[in-house]
Amino acid sequence: MPDFLLEEQYEGAVCGLDEVGRGPLAGPVVAACVYIPENMRRCSFIADIQDSKKLSEKKLAALYASITENFIWATAEQSPEEIDNINILQASLKAMALAMKEVVVNDGIIFDHALVDGNKLPELPCPATTVVKGDSKSVSIAAASIVAKVTRDRFMKDLHDLHPHYGWNTNVGYPTKVHLAGIEAHGITSHHRKSFGPVRKFLDFESTRNPLNSAA
Fold first, then answer.
1. What 3-state DSSP class applies to 181?
2. Which one of 17, 38, 41, 99 is most buried, by most CB atoms within 10 A?
3. Does residue 152 contact residue 21 with C-beta atoms inside 8 Å?
């Protein structure tokens, strides 16, 4: 279970940063920044905060509500177009930096340190430390993973209503059989990441089958 041991290594305001959505074929990558003030670290629900991938949808929704009601947080995203332009790693790092900026601008907090999930640091206005598997070691990072995941999952489920052929209400853009079959049968949407293998493969096939359309 994550705890506050990492946060307590640094003086002042320490936030957690995490992102969700590096692997899907469609939709944005979403990052969250969460700051848990010391006077809020005894909230009873904190004991339930952990890696978002290990939580049920019902538990995620409950923890999302508790985190967003009691802590200081923000999210930011990078679109499929931006992901295609700068690659998914850089888009993920940019989203994390933007999420922190949102907290700084909207809440006026000057962070003394940031804990970042993974092994790459975004460009931040404060010192930062990467934490591999950080959502299992830091409550702030785990809380950020929950906020980012719920935000992105809800967005993808809304997109499913507009594009029901890809199963985004359940796979949230990941390359499941339903999603891949949807691409084969119905093509791609503006929400697909054109630089990702299966989508690029479909576009390449279409360009060879319809060279005039591709040239246009």
1. helix
2. 17
3. yes
Which of 162, 179, 196 lies at the terminal end of a domain, its last residue? 162
Give CA–CA dist 42/187, Å, rounded.
50
End-to-end CA distance of the chain: 54
CA distance 192 to 203: 11
120, 182: one domain: no
**How far apart (Å, rounded) are the C-alpha atoms in residues 28 and 152?**
8
Residue 39 shares a structural domain with residue 115: yes
Question: What's the average pLDDT block by block, 10 residues per block, for the chain (216 residues)?
Answer: 94 97 98 96 96 94 98 98 98 98 95 98 97 97 98 98 98 98 96 97 85 49
Distance between CA atoms of residues 134 and 64, nearest Å: 18
